[in-house]
Amino acid sequence: MTGSATDGSGGGGCAPAAWQSGLAALGPFFAVRTHDAGRPAAPPWRSMAELRTDPSVLRERVAAVRGALASGGGRPPRDVEARVAASVAHLGVVARLVSPCLALAVLYGEVPYGLRLAALRWQPALGGPYPLSLPARPAIAGTDDAGSGPDELADALTREVCDGPVRELGEEFAALRVSPRIAWGNVASAVNGAAGMIAAARPDRAARARTVAALVLDRPPLRGTATRTSTGAFQRRSCCLIYRAAPGRAGALCGDCVLRR
Predict the structure, then answer these.
(1) What is the domain partition of the chain in residue ranges?
(2) What's the CA gap between 17 and 14, in Å, rounded?
Protein backbone atom coordinates (compact mmCIF):
# COMPACT_ATOMS: atom_id res chain seq x y z
CA MET A 1 0.00 0.00 0.00
CA THR A 2 1.37 3.36 -0.95
CA GLY A 3 0.43 6.96 -0.42
CA SER A 4 0.57 9.30 2.55
CA ALA A 5 -1.48 10.05 5.61
CA THR A 6 -1.00 11.38 9.09
CA ASP A 7 -0.04 8.46 11.25
CA GLY A 8 -0.07 7.44 14.88
CA SER A 9 3.66 7.87 15.44
CA GLY A 10 3.98 11.46 14.30
CA GLY A 11 5.45 10.66 10.87
CA GLY A 12 4.16 9.87 7.40
CA GLY A 13 1.95 6.83 6.95
CA CYS A 14 1.65 4.51 3.96
CA ALA A 15 -2.07 3.98 3.52
CA PRO A 16 -3.65 5.72 0.52
CA ALA A 17 -5.97 8.60 1.30
CA ALA A 18 -8.78 6.72 -0.46
CA TRP A 19 -8.19 3.67 1.74
CA GLN A 20 -8.48 5.69 4.92
CA SER A 21 -11.38 7.81 3.73
CA GLY A 22 -13.21 4.70 2.55
CA LEU A 23 -13.09 3.23 6.05
CA ALA A 24 -13.92 6.53 7.74
CA ALA A 25 -17.01 6.85 5.54
CA LEU A 26 -18.42 3.74 7.23
CA GLY A 27 -18.47 5.47 10.61
CA PRO A 28 -16.18 6.24 13.56
CA PHE A 29 -15.75 2.58 14.54
CA PHE A 30 -13.94 2.02 11.23
CA ALA A 31 -11.73 5.09 10.96
CA VAL A 32 -8.01 4.41 11.42
CA ARG A 33 -4.63 6.06 11.08
CA THR A 34 -1.42 4.28 10.14
CA HIS A 35 2.04 4.43 11.63
CA ASP A 36 5.56 3.24 10.97
CA ALA A 37 5.84 -0.02 12.91
CA GLY A 38 9.53 0.65 13.53
CA ARG A 39 8.94 3.86 15.46
CA PRO A 40 7.89 4.10 19.10
CA ALA A 41 4.48 5.56 19.84
CA ALA A 42 4.53 9.34 20.27
CA PRO A 43 1.97 11.19 22.44
CA PRO A 44 -0.97 11.30 22.36
CA TRP A 45 -0.64 7.79 20.88
CA ARG A 46 0.21 4.81 23.06
CA SER A 47 1.10 1.22 22.33
CA MET A 48 -1.71 -1.26 22.93
CA ALA A 49 0.93 -3.61 24.30
CA GLU A 50 0.57 -1.75 27.59
CA LEU A 51 -2.68 -3.64 28.11
CA ARG A 52 -0.48 -6.71 28.57
CA THR A 53 2.69 -5.27 30.03
CA ASP A 54 1.22 -2.81 32.55
CA PRO A 55 -1.67 -4.22 34.61
CA SER A 56 -2.58 -0.74 35.82
CA VAL A 57 -3.56 0.32 32.28
CA LEU A 58 -6.15 -2.42 31.99
CA ARG A 59 -7.45 -1.79 35.50
CA GLU A 60 -7.76 1.93 34.78
CA ARG A 61 -9.72 1.19 31.59
CA VAL A 62 -12.13 -1.09 33.41
CA ALA A 63 -12.47 1.37 36.29
CA ALA A 64 -13.34 4.15 33.84
CA VAL A 65 -15.98 1.99 32.17
CA ARG A 66 -17.32 1.04 35.60
CA GLY A 67 -17.64 4.69 36.50
CA ALA A 68 -19.44 5.47 33.25
CA LEU A 69 -21.88 2.60 33.71
CA ALA A 70 -22.58 3.67 37.28
CA SER A 71 -23.09 7.29 36.29
CA GLY A 72 -25.68 6.22 33.74
CA GLY A 73 -27.73 4.72 36.54
CA GLY A 74 -27.05 7.50 39.02
CA ARG A 75 -25.10 5.21 41.34
CA PRO A 76 -21.59 5.00 42.78
CA PRO A 77 -19.11 2.77 40.88
CA ARG A 78 -19.06 0.19 43.67
CA ASP A 79 -22.67 -0.66 42.82
CA VAL A 80 -21.61 -2.00 39.41
CA GLU A 81 -19.99 -5.43 39.50
CA ALA A 82 -16.35 -5.31 38.49
CA ARG A 83 -16.86 -8.33 36.22
CA VAL A 84 -19.65 -6.54 34.36
CA ALA A 85 -17.47 -3.50 33.78
CA ALA A 86 -14.62 -5.72 32.60
CA SER A 87 -16.84 -7.50 30.06
CA VAL A 88 -18.24 -4.23 28.72
CA ALA A 89 -14.72 -2.78 28.50
CA HIS A 90 -13.55 -5.88 26.64
CA LEU A 91 -16.43 -5.64 24.17
CA GLY A 92 -15.67 -2.01 23.46
CA VAL A 93 -11.97 -2.61 22.87
CA VAL A 94 -12.40 -5.62 20.59
CA ALA A 95 -15.29 -4.11 18.59
CA ARG A 96 -13.13 -1.11 17.75
CA LEU A 97 -10.31 -3.39 16.65
CA VAL A 98 -12.35 -5.89 14.67
CA SER A 99 -14.42 -3.36 12.72
CA PRO A 100 -11.77 -1.76 10.48
CA CYS A 101 -10.06 -5.10 9.87
CA LEU A 102 -13.31 -6.63 8.62
CA ALA A 103 -14.00 -3.54 6.51
CA LEU A 104 -10.54 -3.71 4.94
CA ALA A 105 -11.27 -7.29 3.93
CA VAL A 106 -14.74 -6.55 2.58
CA LEU A 107 -13.97 -3.31 0.72
CA TYR A 108 -10.38 -3.82 -0.38
CA GLY A 109 -9.74 -7.56 -0.15
CA GLU A 110 -6.87 -7.02 2.27
CA VAL A 111 -6.10 -8.07 5.83
CA PRO A 112 -3.13 -6.61 7.74
CA TYR A 113 -0.79 -9.37 8.78
CA GLY A 114 1.48 -9.81 11.75
CA LEU A 115 -0.96 -7.97 14.01
CA ARG A 116 -0.29 -8.09 17.72
CA LEU A 117 -1.12 -5.63 20.47
CA ALA A 118 2.49 -4.46 20.36
CA ALA A 119 2.00 -3.41 16.73
CA LEU A 120 -1.09 -1.29 17.42
CA ARG A 121 -1.45 2.27 18.66
CA TRP A 122 -4.41 3.79 20.48
CA GLN A 123 -5.63 6.71 22.52
CA PRO A 124 -7.66 5.19 25.38
CA ALA A 125 -10.51 7.69 25.33
CA LEU A 126 -14.03 6.89 26.54
CA GLY A 127 -17.35 8.22 25.30
CA GLY A 128 -17.00 6.88 21.76
CA PRO A 129 -14.70 4.80 19.55
CA TYR A 130 -11.13 5.33 20.72
CA PRO A 131 -8.60 6.54 18.10
CA LEU A 132 -6.80 3.56 16.55
CA SER A 133 -3.72 3.29 14.35
CA LEU A 134 -2.65 0.22 12.37
CA PRO A 135 0.94 -0.51 11.34
CA ALA A 136 1.72 0.52 7.78
CA ARG A 137 2.98 -2.79 6.46
CA PRO A 138 2.09 -5.04 3.52
CA ALA A 139 -1.30 -6.73 3.61
CA ILE A 140 -2.55 -10.09 2.45
CA ALA A 141 -3.71 -9.03 -1.00
CA GLY A 142 -6.40 -10.57 -3.14
CA THR A 143 -6.98 -11.72 -6.68
CA ASP A 144 -10.43 -10.51 -7.75
CA ASP A 145 -11.79 -7.00 -8.28
CA ALA A 146 -12.36 -6.55 -4.55
CA GLY A 147 -9.48 -8.66 -3.28
CA SER A 148 -9.34 -12.26 -2.12
CA GLY A 149 -12.29 -14.60 -2.11
CA PRO A 150 -14.44 -14.82 1.04
CA ASP A 151 -12.86 -18.05 2.29
CA GLU A 152 -9.34 -16.67 1.97
CA LEU A 153 -10.33 -13.48 3.73
CA ALA A 154 -12.05 -15.37 6.54
CA ASP A 155 -8.93 -17.49 7.01
CA ALA A 156 -6.75 -14.38 7.14
CA LEU A 157 -9.05 -12.53 9.56
CA THR A 158 -9.16 -15.55 11.84
CA ARG A 159 -5.41 -16.00 11.80
CA GLU A 160 -4.27 -12.38 11.93
CA VAL A 161 -7.00 -10.75 14.02
CA CYS A 162 -8.90 -13.33 16.10
CA ASP A 163 -5.82 -15.40 16.89
CA GLY A 164 -3.68 -12.27 17.15
CA PRO A 165 -4.51 -9.18 19.22
CA VAL A 166 -8.07 -10.31 19.96
CA ARG A 167 -6.83 -13.48 21.63
CA GLU A 168 -4.23 -11.49 23.54
CA LEU A 169 -6.95 -9.20 24.87
CA GLY A 170 -9.09 -12.15 25.94
CA GLU A 171 -6.19 -13.60 27.89
CA GLU A 172 -5.68 -10.35 29.76
CA PHE A 173 -9.37 -9.81 30.54
CA ALA A 174 -9.59 -13.38 31.85
CA ALA A 175 -7.68 -12.17 34.91
CA LEU A 176 -10.62 -9.83 35.55
CA ARG A 177 -13.12 -12.72 35.53
CA VAL A 178 -14.23 -12.34 31.93
CA SER A 179 -14.57 -16.01 30.97
CA PRO A 180 -13.48 -17.24 27.54
CA ARG A 181 -17.12 -17.99 26.76
CA ILE A 182 -18.13 -14.37 27.38
CA ALA A 183 -15.01 -12.96 25.74
CA TRP A 184 -15.41 -14.92 22.51
CA GLY A 185 -19.11 -14.14 22.54
CA ASN A 186 -18.19 -10.47 22.69
CA VAL A 187 -15.95 -10.96 19.67
CA ALA A 188 -18.70 -12.76 17.76
CA SER A 189 -21.09 -9.92 18.53
CA ALA A 190 -18.49 -7.42 17.34
CA VAL A 191 -17.96 -9.26 14.05
CA ASN A 192 -21.68 -9.47 13.37
CA GLY A 193 -22.24 -5.85 14.36
CA ALA A 194 -19.43 -4.63 12.11
CA ALA A 195 -20.83 -6.60 9.18
CA GLY A 196 -24.23 -5.02 9.74
CA MET A 197 -22.78 -1.51 9.79
CA ILE A 198 -20.78 -2.15 6.62
CA ALA A 199 -23.88 -3.51 4.89
CA ALA A 200 -25.92 -0.49 5.93
CA ALA A 201 -23.31 2.02 4.77
CA ARG A 202 -22.33 0.15 1.60
CA PRO A 203 -25.30 -1.80 0.21
CA ASP A 204 -23.14 -2.78 -2.76
CA ARG A 205 -20.91 -4.72 -0.35
CA ALA A 206 -23.66 -6.01 1.95
CA ALA A 207 -23.64 -9.59 0.66
CA ARG A 208 -19.86 -9.76 0.79
CA ALA A 209 -19.79 -8.35 4.33
CA ARG A 210 -22.31 -10.87 5.59
CA THR A 211 -20.60 -13.76 3.81
CA VAL A 212 -17.13 -12.99 5.16
CA ALA A 213 -18.49 -12.43 8.68
CA ALA A 214 -20.43 -15.70 8.59
CA LEU A 215 -17.31 -17.58 7.50
CA VAL A 216 -15.25 -16.03 10.31
CA LEU A 217 -17.95 -16.98 12.81
CA ASP A 218 -17.90 -20.55 11.49
CA ARG A 219 -14.17 -20.98 12.13
CA PRO A 220 -12.49 -21.66 15.47
CA PRO A 221 -12.20 -19.87 17.85
CA LEU A 222 -15.60 -18.30 17.10
CA ARG A 223 -17.36 -21.46 15.96
CA GLY A 224 -20.22 -22.23 18.32
CA THR A 225 -20.27 -18.77 19.92
CA ALA A 226 -23.46 -17.77 18.08
CA THR A 227 -26.40 -19.16 16.17
CA ARG A 228 -29.32 -18.02 14.04
CA THR A 229 -32.85 -17.89 15.38
CA SER A 230 -35.83 -19.32 13.52
CA THR A 231 -36.24 -15.90 11.88
CA GLY A 232 -32.61 -15.79 10.79
CA ALA A 233 -31.52 -13.25 13.39
CA PHE A 234 -28.03 -13.45 14.85
CA GLN A 235 -27.94 -14.57 18.49
CA ARG A 236 -24.83 -15.08 20.57
CA ARG A 237 -24.69 -17.99 23.01
CA SER A 238 -23.45 -15.91 25.91
CA CYS A 239 -24.20 -12.54 27.51
CA CYS A 240 -21.96 -9.49 27.78
CA LEU A 241 -23.57 -8.83 31.21
CA ILE A 242 -24.31 -5.16 30.59
CA TYR A 243 -27.92 -5.55 31.75
CA ARG A 244 -26.53 -6.15 35.26
CA ALA A 245 -25.07 -2.64 35.35
CA ALA A 246 -28.55 -1.11 35.70
CA PRO A 247 -30.19 -0.62 39.10
CA GLY A 248 -31.56 -3.91 40.32
CA ARG A 249 -29.58 -5.65 37.56
CA ALA A 250 -32.64 -5.13 35.42
CA GLY A 251 -31.25 -3.30 32.40
CA ALA A 252 -32.32 -3.86 28.82
CA LEU A 253 -30.85 -6.84 27.00
CA CYS A 254 -28.80 -6.41 23.84
CA GLY A 255 -30.54 -7.34 20.62
CA ASP A 256 -28.37 -10.42 20.11
CA CYS A 257 -28.29 -11.59 23.75
CA VAL A 258 -28.76 -15.27 24.57
CA LEU A 259 -31.17 -14.26 27.35
CA ARG A 260 -33.70 -12.83 24.89
CA ARG A 261 -36.64 -15.11 24.19
Answers:
(1) 55-115+138-249
(2) 9
